[in-house]
Amino acid sequence: MISQLENKIANKTAKCAVIGMGYVGLPLAMEFAAKGYKVYGVDIAKEKINNLKAGVSYIVDIRSSDIKKLVTAKKLVPTWDFAVLSESDMIIVCVPTPLAKTKEPDMSFIISAADEIKKHLRSGQLIVLESTTYPGTTDEVLLSMFEETGLKAGKDFFLAFSPERIDPSNPKFVTKNIPKIMGGVTPVCTKIAMKFYSKVIDRLVEVSSSKVAEMAKLYENTFRSVNIALANELCLICDKLGVDVWEVIDAASTKPFGFMPFYPGPGIGGHCIPVDPYYLTWKSRVYGFDPRFIELAAEVNHGMPEYVVGRIQDILNDRKKSI
Prior knowledge:
Elements: H1 2-11, E1 15-19, H2 25-34, E2 38-42, H3 46-53, H4 64-72, E3 76-79, E4 90-93, H5 108-120, E5 126-129, H6 137-147, E6 158-161, E7 180-184, H7 187-197, E8 204-206, H8 210-241, H9 245-252, H10 276-286, H11 292-318
Parallel strand pairs: 1-2, 1-4, 2-3, 4-5, 5-6, 7-8
Antiparallel strand pairs: 6-7
Helix pairs in contact: 5-6, 8-10, 8-11
């Protein structure tokens, strides 16, 4: 069965389904489709699917003409029907992982996708989770759900985690040339997943487990959150001291080792940095560890909008313009 799947990957007869046609899933689906694989782009949002069928892009980095070309060639097949999972050899999950109001992980999108996969799971399939989540999700949630069917990971089907890495609007780094981490629930799972992804990704980084891959993703984004918080706090200090924070950072950046510049701003935005560290702090508390440093960084960052509004108000007041 392993050799059959490898042969399908090699001769491009393998079919792929990507669940989630957002800023992560759509570019990845298009990469595989452009390489000659038949790819089902699956999403519950019918507006997205209708746009894709019409060859209309809703993502800034993707041209409508590229979508239309792949859809016309029937290499990219947009659909909201999960029945296509039955005929798919590879299933990639790229769904949102937001926070609940309590700052705890909202796993509903992953669970919903996993339920659909479970309904259509068969021998010989590869499933890869790309959605950012807490360490242990692939093993503790997906693996246990899928093995309830009686199929065994590494023997009957293959399961891995490969964290999405994408920087929207970055012309230099795109899906193909961003190194990609891969960690399977068994060594065979890792091997199969790497064989498939190697067809579209320039460099793959193998790790020992899915949990390591999950943790690496959270560390990447937590690293940014903490360092942004340091830059924001430096900004507050410089304001009190009457020092130009930008000049300070530019001066420090001349050090050719041991320093990386981060810059202050009105808080943190985007899909990942405001959310992902909380997945790590939540999981840490499950194991009885209180991650004070990470939460302090989030507290500093979340206080920046108020500071910026206050500074704007002061500047306008100095010019006799009131808010």
